[in-house]
Amino acid sequence: MIKTKIENYLKKVIYKTLIGADFKLINTDFKIEVFTSEKDNFGHYSTNAALKLAKELKKNPMQIADEIKILLLSDRIARDYFEKIEIAAPGFINFWLTEKVLQDELKEILKQKNNYGQSKIKGQKSKVQIEYISANPTGPLTLANGRGGFMGDVLSNILEFCGYKVEREYYVNDAGNQILTLGKSILANAGFLAFEEKFYKGGYVKEWAIKNSLKVKKFKNNPMNPQLMYKWGMKVGKMAAANFLKEIKSVVKKAGINFNRWTSEEKDIYKKSFTSKALNIFKKAKLIYEKDGALWLKTTDFGDEKDRVLITRDGFPTYFLADSGHYLETKKRGFNKKIIILGPDHHGYIKRIQAAAKIIGLKDSDVIITQAIRLISKGKEVKMSKRSGEFVTFEELIKEVSIDAARFFFLMHSADTHMDFDLDLAKEWSMKNPVYYVQYAAVRCGSILRKSQISNPKSQINSKFKIQNLNLLDTLEDINLMRMLARFPEIIKEAGEKYNPQILARYSLELAWQFNNFYEKERVIGEEKNLAAARLELIKATQIIFKILFSVLGISLPRRM
User: Fold this and answer.
1) Is 245 helix (H, G, I), strand (E, B) or coil?
2) What is the pLDDT of residues 496-524, one digit of tens each?
3) 127 CB-near residues (< 8 Å, 6+ apart)
4) What is the distance between the alpha carbons of residues 445 and 451, in angstroms, rounded to a whole number?
5) Terminus of the chain with fewer CB atoms < 10 Å: N or C?
6) Is the CB of residue 95 less than 8 Å from the CB of residue 6?
């Protein structure tokens, strides 16, 4: 990886030569950082190492930067790597790579093909569970569920590409009060119960009650027997939840969102006693106390704003206790790392579940919160839904726009930002549509390669001959495209380390723009044969990177558009 090589060159001159006896003065947290430059006049890469060293050594950063530059240029290997090194105030060092470095990296893409960019990141080869969507089976999936679903699916792909063993989990909350509330809501819609404020109000509840009226009729209300009412409510709730779960599975399959484990709260957590096992761990840690008839966990000892209830005064386990049991079950199956993706109404949940994870011994636990989504059409927010009458479902969205558009539009935004989903743009079949723009560039690569075979069949035969001609790729557009391709390993590494698929989506747009710019300004077919052969290799490498990107992002690659 180019960025890593630059970091290593810097370490060599800083640690061994520049600092010398002053090495102990350097803070142990000091880290060499190299950045991709945003503008060409700032180089291909830059570093702020001199600025950071200046604070530690109490020296002028421009002087330190100049010393680093001199030392780098005195190293033969480093000197061959950089075309130019410049110092910029207040102490940045800017690097321009030689053409040979980029041409050699192009050879690596052509050699490694679909394995290119599988860089090492922390935790590689370890097991990680990624939990996403996990919506209660009490109704249809929302847009927020879809956003978390696409993110979880692609994050799983990224970490698998980087060498992790990933389990993709959907945690099904098929036990507890929400199932009872669903059952009572249906009975109320069927006219057997008085409607209560806490009941589910969506049109889908009434729709299910009508559709399954024969099943519901046998549960005629007996208000004098609350115990029987509880039994009826749970039975109806479980029947409806099973149906809703089938619909959820159908929708995520249509959306291309993959899971390899569906964990049942009732069967996998409660029936296997993981809630009681978690409770025992909390008790042994002496972190439990009673108050107001309820059982509490001291989550404030771990940074939570208040302690949390595990068992209510009525003797019912809370969602939090069930989730603690779920985390314990994950650990017992050999996972020390878990990532959970939650919707925008779960900010208060982070501290408590991280506290539980720490107590039960799950070493590495991360929580990602996705932000709210607005659907926009003709400049106005779209609120109403034909089915529910209250919100637009995820299923309705993927019927309205293509799966590729829905997925890409969600992935273009970082999870921690609110987003507006432009329905009109998502349905537009033009270069204004981001996913169309990216796909068109990838299709154009394939089209050029096919045309080159037709016009000159022999041009695709001697691969050794073509590789030797890569030194002919020396125009600004050749170099910029090679630079963009060579960035892929650092891009996928950053996306994996930051758990941020948006980095890949943004890169795919930048690559599409760079390739289209190359296409418009440079000839391929019809060019002098040696240069044409070299440029065809450049296009072949571009196609390889597009294929990896589309595979990881879960976007289709059409043959023609």
Assistant:
1) helix
2) 999 999 999 999 999 999 999 999 999 88
3) 164, 165, 166, 167, 334, 335, 336, 337
4) 10
5) C
6) yes
